């Protein structure tokens, strides 16, 4: 592996931006592209998804032959695009006879393919078909995400799809949330035959109390999908990717409890000089001594 060295200050800042960090403060960049064969449904859907990831995606319009991530060596071009765009996730649209309107979503680790899952798209409705409903929402903002159904916890493929979709659309990490800033919600409902993907705009109306009345109105894009093939990450790579960085020095005998907060343990030496201390004697003892 050849290490790049910056020759200018601009190049140095670019390399520092791509370098790994202990705490990620930016959203995950996503590469959106098409395979060798695509359909108009996938083109419109990827366009809508790029609007949802506005500012955090790199959308490619040309067809890319040879990208077959589930085949050996078919992920080379995909990893090359990820390194060029400094991306941690991807959305790939392919259309085949066996798998029509197939949307493959996945993630990278160290610019190498980590995990992925296929979503076979059905009943797609673009955002344009809902009119001006979405004008009240700021596209590209951080959405609220809801996953309904126990299949997201019991089936490995749907569990991975939930994890990947949350990682793609969660946006930048936030420490504080303003209620007025939560203007849209993404709802995924797992039914027996398919999973429904819906996006709604949130309307806050007067309720006569301190908390407003919340109403949802669908704004698109709307589609159903069935999970196809999926690929789990290798156990050793998964352990390395899920490792949490240790920030700061570890303080001895100090723990953090969810109820009591910061809890510490103090060690005190054994006190042996209590018998030698000059203590005040009682008057009764003095009287007994005089009588003796």
Automatic annotation (TrEMBL):
Q: Per the database record, which ranges form the Brix domain?
A: 28-236
Q: Where in the cell is it found?
A: Nucleus, Nucleolus
Hydrolase in keyword set: no
Q: What is its main location?
A: nucleus
What Pfam family is a match for this entry?
Answer: Brix
Supply one GO BP term: maturation of LSU-rRNA from tricistronic rRNA transcript (SSU-rRNA, 5.8S rRNA, LSU-rRNA)
Protein name (database record): Ribosome production factor 2 homolog
| Organism per entry | Micromonas commoda (strain RCC299 / NOUM17 / CCMP2709)
